[in-house]
Amino acid sequence: MKTKIFKQNPIYKRQNVLFGILSLTLLVLFSGVSSCTTDETQTVVNFKTITMQDEFDEDGAPNSSIWTYDIGGNGWGNNELQYYTDRSQNVTVQNGYLIITAEKENFEGASYTSARLLTKGLFEQKYGRFEARIKLPWGQGLWPAFWLLGSDIDEVDWPYCGEIDIMENRGQEPTLINGTIHGPGYSGGESITKPYRLMNDRFDTDFHIFGIEWGPEYINFYVDDVLYNQITPKDLPTSAFPEYICDGLSVSECSDRKQRWNKWSFDQPFFIIINLAVGGNYVGSPNAETVFPQTMLVDYVRVYQADFINN
Amino acid sequence: MKMKNIKFMYSKTAFLLGLVFITMVSCERDPSNQLEFATYPSNGEIFIDGFSGGLDYYPFGDSYFEAFSVDSQTFFKGSSSMRFDVPNVGDPNGAYAGAIFRVDSGRDLSGFDALTFWAKGTRGGLINEIGFGQDFFENKYQVSMSLQLTTNWRKYTIPIPDPAKLIQERGMFWYAEGPENGEGYTFWIDELQFEKLGTIAQPQPAILFGEDKSEIAFTGVDIQLSGLTQTFNLESGNNVTVFAAPSYFNFKSSNEDIAFVNEAGIVSVVGEGTTKITASLGGVLAKGSLELTSRGGFDLAPVPTRDPSKVISIYSDTYTNVPVDFFNGFWEPFQTTQSSEFAIGGNNMINYTNFNFVGNQFANPTVDATQKSNVHINMYIPNSVPANIDFLITLVDFGDDQADGGGDDTRQQVFFDKALFVADTWITLEFPITMANKNNMGLIIYENINGSSLSNFYLDNIYFYED
User: Fold this and answer.
1) What is the mean pLDDT of residues B348-377?
2) Domain span holding position B87
3) Residues B286, B360: one domain?
């Protein structure tokens, strides 16, 4: 794969503490707190200050000061089969969990319903630790995801806004999740991605914590206390700009896109999306063995800011 | 010949043979803290490069005894594998391969979740049955499935329906496989062991293959619940379904005064009314149910009194019956009739439901009814006789070719007066055989005609007789 993998020091577990020497674009993990002497030239990042947190402790509809919804059944660019609603049978908070339920039902011309929550316009942040504790659904054709989109999507369009998929899963791969970034020149099938496999365990039988720690010029991907991937600008492709992209665009729009091509698109605020899709290009359609309804349970979503200690 | 209802009960064997020390100090009745239950070895290995300790091999009595060998030429890993030579069709030494592999003292398999192994065949044979839990004793926790081989080594997983049950299991492995398209072949199994995979999840147990069924029953009837399965989702994302012995399930009857279920999955009807039979496995409710409506005591058909020497019997408990090919031909695509055979107090009868037409064939050999002048049939219609009843019986003589069709068949149709049919009692249908050729009788067909809506009835005592 594209980057070296570092195992997070188990002492820190989910304490979201990561020491790095970013000025050298070389990540060094110290094996213990006592052995860590901070060099004056390094930038040390702490993820200790919570900036947003939803523990889903209040039954009913999700907190409307944090979450809004995408509604509809247009396939969402992936030929997804579900119609997203904000009805309580598709999205509700009960007993301390956000419950997103995919139902098999005919609704507004779709064969399935589900829900997609987002914090767009309500909570957006640049850098930090984004994490959620989730128990996934299972079965062919289910596609749960916890991901971020650049807040400038409405101005610059996708994938120029950047996309960070903290976790997405194919229901037919119960032991695998993928962490991925999309941006100009590296989106869709050319995205930069890495799977993480649970050994002797599955993602649909218990909760797991999916997180990223994101700072200038790096994104670290975690499952539980395991750092399984780091993506930096060094991982970006160097492909030529396809001129057809400028078809129908103004000169300034065209030059803007050229400038962004193959560039790091992760230095602006992002918002959070949590959804459970049914079918679509990524996962394929459900089959006769897929059991409905399926639920995605979210225990909490927490976001920490990136505290730059030496800045 | 009628099939006999097979009844079996599990003896009450104790699971745990423990050394129990009871210290009589006071009126304390709880086991003392010195109590230790005996535990059995938790070794999961069966065959890695040789048999693990205490394992024996017992072929099925009518199988090819030489089918199994240890092969040190072909193996997946290590130095040897288990080799199985499936014989050709008609092999005088045994027409199929099959055996159990048993440990005599039992093992504690409760810490595992699957039997796994690597296998390949000289052809992509479909092993008819493969699993574990068969021990030639009670087969209490027997598991089986069919398994499609490939000609390359592949790993296979047979999940344990509920590991908590297997604290003293003797049946480590069993299989039964016949020829493929008449031809024998060879397959190998290696690295055979119980494993804790941790990736076997989402149990979906079922009874009656997951169907919700309704049946009419009568006091004294025993019904064996079938279609008992457990399905798991594997790491591959694929579901695997195994047949699981009744003892893995907890059965429940909503009204035990009407029927109860024992741990062998046999429903015993004991009263009149309606009850619903459901089950769970490992705490998960099984898909499928049986709603039984018991009408209480059932009148048995009158016992025939004719001289056996003057009777050729197709179906009765009184006479020796001729060989019957089937009591329901399931003729596609138009036949809807379902059938079941059951016994009350040792008296067998056939029940046809969702009836439109059905046949009883007895052509191997055909029946020479030259000396017989009449046909006798007892019939019971429960509840009520439909007003539009129009019931036709057709006798078919298969002619010299003694086979259905072939241009030499002859038929006799028998129509009945509506007034003959009375509900909730055994009626007797007797009629003369008037057809010219009756020396190769092979088939009796029953059918609704002219829109008749007769749906449910019982038959007994079907025979030809000499008046």
Assistant:
1) 94
2) 45-195
3) no
